[in-house]
Amino acid sequence: MEPDARRWQSWAAMVEDFDLVTEMHGSGAWQLTGDPVPTEVGCSAFVTMTEVTAPADLDGTRVPSTYFWIAAGDGGPDDELVGFLHLRHSLNPWLLEQGGHIGYSVKPSARRRGHAVAALRLGLQAAAGLGIDRVLVTCDADNEASRRTIEAGGGVLEDERSGKLRYWITS
């Protein structure tokens, strides 16, 4: 689902579950001035950041991208937010080596319930809709759960670079 500031309370609970980290784990940096603040204003700032996708609006390190929130259920208004998914429309040199097209993270209290597999599947559909035929997805070499998620999504291991496993998935 697309980020929506009206769901700020569920977003705030999700951010707190992540222990207010400085980045969204596998789905990238917050790209905010400071760490996320789990308030309505903080959520609005995050949603505004996710809307910045035009190359002219980016700082030179980011590429055009689409952010999604992962919800438990079908994305209805009462569904709990459980994670983030970030689909990058192209790869710069760093993303080609480390970050990939798709990054995702599921909050600790919602892991091992299939949310990441479902989110990756939806991310691959969105990538195909953008005309991205081969999608790069990476994970830390020691992240067994993410490795299994990527492989369940059809990922084929290309190699390991700087502690990251690099998988390609045909979308």
Automatic annotation (TrEMBL):
Q: Name the InterPro entries for this protein.
A: Acyl_CoA_acyltransferase, GNAT_dom
Q: Which GO terms describe its molecular function?
A: acyltransferase activity, transferring groups other than amino-acyl groups
Give the domain of life.
Bacteria
The protein in question is named PhnO protein
Specify the N-acetyltransferase domain's residue ranges.
16-171
State the CDD domains in the record. Answer: NAT_SF
